[in-house]
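Slide 14.
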Amino acid sequence: MLVIDVARLETLLAVGGLLLLAGVMASKLSSRLGVPALLAFLALGMLIGSDGPGGIAFDDPLAAQGVGIVALAFILFAGGLDTRWEQVRPVLRGGLLLSTVGVVVTAVVTGLAAGLVLGVPLELGLLVGAAVSSTDAAAVFSVLGSRSVGLRQHLRPLLELESGSNDPMAILLTVGLLEWIVRGGFGAEDAIRLLVQQLALGMVGGALVAALLAWVLGRVRLDQQGLYPVVTVAGVVLTYATVSELGGSGFLAVYIVGLILGQADLPHRRRLMDFHDAVAWLMQIVLFLVLGMLVFPSQLPAVAVPAVAILVVLTFVARPLAVAICLPFGWSLRERALVSWVGLRGAAPILLATFPLVAGIDVAGTVFDVVFFVVFLSVLLQGTSIPAVARRLGVDAPLGPPRPLAVEGVQRGSAALDLAEVEVVGGSTADGLRIIDLELPDRVLVVLLRRGDDHVIPQGSTTVEAGDALVLVGPADDLAEVRTRFGG
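Slide 15: predicted structure.
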């Protein structure tokens, strides 16, 4: 019989609520100081942990691993949902090379250095290299999503695609090396088979689930708007669990689901994106708090020197070499330098460092501490300097337009009406016309016009210009027609 200690539950809920609020405040403070919010979450977790003044005892790597898996799944989905395919398509080759070949190169070079610096056998050094081999989606999406970073042309889509798709290779290397260390007999043939299986099932499973979700969201009219996010949450959970159970990469699958749904014409699309943006922030706070609590700061000074040496090799040798191999043509030297510098490590490497802890290998504690220290310094040094480095290299760009207004569907009588924001593309049928001359469907009205940072209540004589965003109200089918005409 399940017995719940209500008093203890209430205490835990109160502490959890306070920690979430503290995380939000830490994010605000870190933004003013020019420090990535993720670093503030990690530091807060260390302060409240068993080795800090908070004194919350937490030493359960298996629980931390479970929290990390759930959090990363929702972070990757939100990142894919906010990515535009037309921006990703030109960098698809480079992004996939970085997320596969680049991860292997980074792991091998860094692992060889780690073995020498730590004085451990080759396989243990490679295990450290594998853990820090992938760039982290949570860190990259968070830093590049801030309003302080503007990058030229295809740099941001490349970095986001890489960070969203390189976890399978890093997981493969980590699991393979653990098999080699613990049991032996895990060879190159096993690694290749596992890689192909992970990637194939991840991509196919993600595409199938995305098609199913797009059909459900587009065809099934739910009575309550709040049920649409419930469908996508269920989709994320089912996608990760099902694909992982079949032996594929659940992380890759949920990223693909988000990427495909982000291009679909879904009802209440803006509300769905805002919802999952909020969920992603919640997951980032929880994830980094938990990982911060798992570390014992008093043990870090013992690994500080080797961790710094490993970070130097990772940042200035392994990552640039991987970028040079994967982006040999079509990218300038300055662009490759920026891609090398934005190889941010974050939650994914720390999560991978819990695998040796769960497996119970002898030096697991040292591996975890080294990886944590490397990640902490990576976010601190690289994350805070990206805007300055981009300007120095001359690859920065003006920040994009403000995020579209959050618009919601409404119900009028028996007719379901949606609100949509449509951006007018140069050369489209709307460019240069007055509102009265747009030939809108009878049931569609223009309720607001956004031009840059200004918002205007339009009149019939208001002239529409390329780059304007029109907020329209009307049936979903009519809005889809208008979006097609005005979008080019």
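Speaker note: The longest helix spans residues 188-219.
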